[in-house]
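Hi R.,

Here's the chain you asked about this morning:
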Amino acid sequence: MIAPAGARRLLPPWWDYQWFPLRSLARALDDAARERLPALRDGVVVDLGCGDSPYESLLTTHGAASYVRCDLGDAADITIIPGQAIDLPTAWADLVVSFQVLEHVWDLDWYLGEARRVLKPTGQLLLSTHGSWLFHPHPEDFRRWTRTGLARELMTRGFEVEFCQGLIGPLAWTTQFRLLGMREVFRRVPLIGAAVVPPIACFMNLWMSFEDALTPAAITADNACIYLTISRPRPAGG
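And here is the predicted structure, written out as tokens:
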């Protein structure tokens, strides 16, 4: 039986070709939910660009009272129409979450403006996006960030960044990129191609774990594959 895509992102199997970044992000989100998100406790969570809501169960386990899914199309609780106000009250949500969405958004003023609008003044924004990654349109792919660049994007749109964590340093993410390339090659090989990828992925996932353990934290902080941030709305005039 094939697990739903959301379950794969939260609990990827060891032989998955994206096991290391998926596991790293899920663990970082779990740590953040336990230690850094007081707004989560008994709060309303709004997921802007929810997809298949892979981390909903993680956040509800850690205390969210309700989870509102927003995305393009009509499969979510609330339909997002780019450039228009999202059909949610102002200053209503305790926590807004955005997981690997920002690189797909062209109008950052609108998207981050709506995140700030629906947040209570005491609320928090939990956001992850790519530092270094390959092109992946879904349906479009516009940007990558440095740590300082992402913080500036948030600050200039009315947020105060409280926490920024870099996940996966350059030794590991270069190996991850090679694994992604090898998968694309082998999946085109008839008969044996699909069978070859999982054992290769197992070995390279183990190697990435070793590489990342060796990488100094200061290098990862400025050269990360993924950045995880926690921010608060800055008071008007602040």
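One quick note: Residues 18-168+216-233 form a domain with the Rossmann fold fold (CATH 3.40.50.150).

Cheers,
M.
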